[in-house]
C-alpha cells in the first residue's frame, strides 16, 4: 500500500471520526497509542529499565500517562514528570496512574542530574500541532533534556512528534526535543520527514492504531513517500537484443579547469545508472583531463563562440545536463542561454541553477526542464534566504516548480519533489548524512540525465533518481558515514538499477 502523508490538521480533524466509524472510543485510541510506544520501548531495552516519562497538559501527555501505567505493569521502573493535565482524557489517564500509586514529580523542576538517573526518557509534552513558540517552562524542559542527552547515555522516545517541532514544516519553535526514536500515529506528518525534522525525529515509526484505512477514506493526502516497489517497476530487465542506442545519449556540459571532477562524477553516474552513451562538452583546457579520468566518456571541447557548432555537437543527444563544474564565466552564460532556448530536455544543477537565478529573462522555455537545487541554490532561485527555504521546504519546492515551470527536487534530508501539474508532492524518506559531501549532487544530476535518456516519463524521473541516489548513499555508508566519497555510490547504484 502506498505510504501517504497528511497535514497535521487533517489528522486532528478526522482521527476521532475515523475511530468512531470503527467503534473505537477516544480512550481506546489513547490506549492503542500507548501500547505501540510500549512495544518500541521493549524493542529498545527490556524491563526493568528505568524510564522517566515527561507529560504535558494535553492528550499527548495523556498518552504518556497511559504508557506509564502499561510500562509499570510490564516491569519497568517508571517515574512521571508532568505539568497539570488539562484535557479530559489526560485527566482520566493521570487519575489512573495516581490510583496505581505511581510516582509523579513536577515538570517545572526537571534538572539534568535527575535525568541522568534513567535509561530511557519519554517525551509526551507537546505532540503535534504546535503553531507558536514553546512557553518558557517547556523551553527549559526541552533544553534540559537535550543537554542531558549530550552528556549521558539517554535514549529518548518522542510520542507522535518531538515536543517543540512544528509537525507540518519540521522547524523547531524555537527549540525541540532531539529524539532517538519517534512513534507517530495514524499517518505520516510532513514535518517529521524533511529538513531539520529528520534530525529531531530520529528513527521514525508509524503506528496506524487500527484506524488508518478508515482515516484515509476521509481525507486526500498532501504527499506520498517514494518506495522501492515504485522504483523497481520503472527499471524492468533489458531486452536481450538491446544496443547502446536504445538506452539514451546524455550530454553533460561543464567541467571548467579546477572543477573537472564534477563533470566526471556526473558522467560516471550516468553510465552506472544505465545510459547508453555519455558525451561531455567542456572548455578546451579541460578536455584531456576529463577524457583520461573515464575512457567511456566522449569528451568534446567547445569555445561557445558559435551556437551552431555547439548544437552540432549535441546533435543526437536525448538530454543535456548543464552545471557540474560549469562556473559562471561568459562561456558558461552563453551555453546556458542557448540551451535554455533549445528544444532539448534540460537538467540544471550547480552553476546552471546559479546562472538561471541571475537571468530569468532566458525563460520561459518550451521543452521540459528539471531543476535539482540544494537549499542554498533554491534560495537564490527564489530570491530569499536559505533559512527561509528551510523554514518551510514544502512551500519552497512548490514555489520553485510554479515559478520556473519545471520538475524540481529540493535536495537535503527528506528530499522533496514536485512539478506544476502534480496532484501531490513526493517525499524521499531514505538517505544518509554520508551524502553531505561535495560531488554528491553531481552524481544525482548524472542519474537524472541517464533516466531521462532511457525514456522514463518526465514526472517519474526525479522520484526514481532521488530514491536511487539516497539508497546508494545508505549502502555506501555501511562502513561509516564520515569519509564516504561520492564515487563510493557507484557500486551500490549499479546493483540498485538492476533489481
UniProtKB/TrEMBL annotation:
<dbReference type="Pfam" id="PF03853">
    <property type="entry name" value="YjeF_N"/>
</dbReference>
<keyword id="KW-0520">NAD</keyword>
<dbReference type="GO" id="GO:0046496">
    <property type="term" value="P:nicotinamide nucleotide metabolic process"/>
</dbReference>
<feature type="binding site">
    <location>
        <position position="160"/>
    </location>
    <ligand>
        <name>(6S)-NADPHX</name>
    </ligand>
</feature>
<keyword id="KW-0547">Nucleotide-binding</keyword>
<feature type="binding site">
    <location>
        <begin position="127"/>
        <end position="133"/>
    </location>
    <ligand>
        <name>(6S)-NADPHX</name>
    </ligand>
</feature>
<protein>
    <recommendedName>
        <fullName>Bifunctional NAD(P)H-hydrate repair enzyme</fullName>
        <ecNumber>4.2.1.136</ecNumber>
        <ecNumber>5.1.99.6</ecNumber>
    </recommendedName>
</protein>
<comment type="similarity">
    <text>Belongs to the NnrD/CARKD family.</text>
</comment>
<comment type="function">
    <text>Catalyzes the epimerization of the S- and R-forms of NAD(P)HX, a damaged form of NAD(P)H that is a result of enzymatic or heat-dependent hydration. This is a prerequisite for the S-specific NAD(P)H-hydrate dehydratase to allow the repair of both epimers of NAD(P)HX.</text>
</comment>
<feature type="domain" description="YjeF C-terminal">
    <location>
        <begin position="227"/>
        <end position="499"/>
    </location>
</feature>
<dbReference type="InterPro" id="IPR017953">
    <property type="entry name" value="Carbohydrate_kinase_pred_CS"/>
</dbReference>
<feature type="binding site">
    <location>
        <position position="441"/>
    </location>
    <ligand>
        <name>AMP</name>
    </ligand>
</feature>
<dbReference type="GO" id="GO:0005524">
    <property type="term" value="F:ATP binding"/>
</dbReference>
<dbReference type="GO" id="GO:0046872">
    <property type="term" value="F:metal ion binding"/>
</dbReference>
<dbReference type="GO" id="GO:0052855">
    <property type="term" value="F:ADP-dependent NAD(P)H-hydrate dehydratase activity"/>
</dbReference>
<feature type="binding site">
    <location>
        <position position="138"/>
    </location>
    <ligand>
        <name>(6S)-NADPHX</name>
    </ligand>
</feature>
<feature type="binding site">
    <location>
        <position position="163"/>
    </location>
    <ligand>
        <name>K(+)</name>
    </ligand>
</feature>
<feature type="binding site">
    <location>
        <begin position="59"/>
        <end position="63"/>
    </location>
    <ligand>
        <name>(6S)-NADPHX</name>
    </ligand>
</feature>
<dbReference type="InterPro" id="IPR030677">
    <property type="entry name" value="Nnr"/>
</dbReference>
<feature type="binding site">
    <location>
        <position position="262"/>
    </location>
    <ligand>
        <name>(6S)-NADPHX</name>
    </ligand>
</feature>
<keyword id="KW-0456">Lyase</keyword>
<keyword id="KW-0479">Metal-binding</keyword>
<dbReference type="InterPro" id="IPR000631">
    <property type="entry name" value="CARKD"/>
</dbReference>
<keyword id="KW-0413">Isomerase</keyword>
<feature type="domain" description="YjeF N-terminal">
    <location>
        <begin position="11"/>
        <end position="217"/>
    </location>
</feature>
<comment type="subunit">
    <text>Homotetramer.</text>
</comment>
<dbReference type="GO" id="GO:0110051">
    <property type="term" value="P:metabolite repair"/>
</dbReference>
<comment type="function">
    <text>Catalyzes the dehydration of the S-form of NAD(P)HX at the expense of ADP, which is converted to AMP. Together with NAD(P)HX epimerase, which catalyzes the epimerization of the S- and R-forms, the enzyme allows the repair of both epimers of NAD(P)HX, a damaged form of NAD(P)H that is a result of enzymatic or heat-dependent hydration.</text>
</comment>
<feature type="binding site">
    <location>
        <position position="60"/>
    </location>
    <ligand>
        <name>K(+)</name>
    </ligand>
</feature>
<dbReference type="InterPro" id="IPR004443">
    <property type="entry name" value="YjeF_N_dom"/>
</dbReference>
<dbReference type="InterPro" id="IPR029056">
    <property type="entry name" value="Ribokinase-like"/>
</dbReference>
<keyword id="KW-0067">ATP-binding</keyword>
<feature type="binding site">
    <location>
        <position position="374"/>
    </location>
    <ligand>
        <name>(6S)-NADPHX</name>
    </ligand>
</feature>
<dbReference type="GO" id="GO:0052856">
    <property type="term" value="F:NAD(P)HX epimerase activity"/>
</dbReference>
<keyword id="KW-0511">Multifunctional enzyme</keyword>
<dbReference type="InterPro" id="IPR036652">
    <property type="entry name" value="YjeF_N_dom_sf"/>
</dbReference>
<comment type="similarity">
    <text>Belongs to the NnrE/AIBP family.</text>
</comment>
<dbReference type="Pfam" id="PF01256">
    <property type="entry name" value="Carb_kinase"/>
</dbReference>
<feature type="binding site">
    <location>
        <position position="442"/>
    </location>
    <ligand>
        <name>(6S)-NADPHX</name>
    </ligand>
</feature>
<feature type="binding site">
    <location>
        <position position="123"/>
    </location>
    <ligand>
        <name>K(+)</name>
    </ligand>
</feature>
<feature type="binding site">
    <location>
        <position position="325"/>
    </location>
    <ligand>
        <name>(6S)-NADPHX</name>
    </ligand>
</feature>
<keyword id="KW-0521">NADP</keyword>
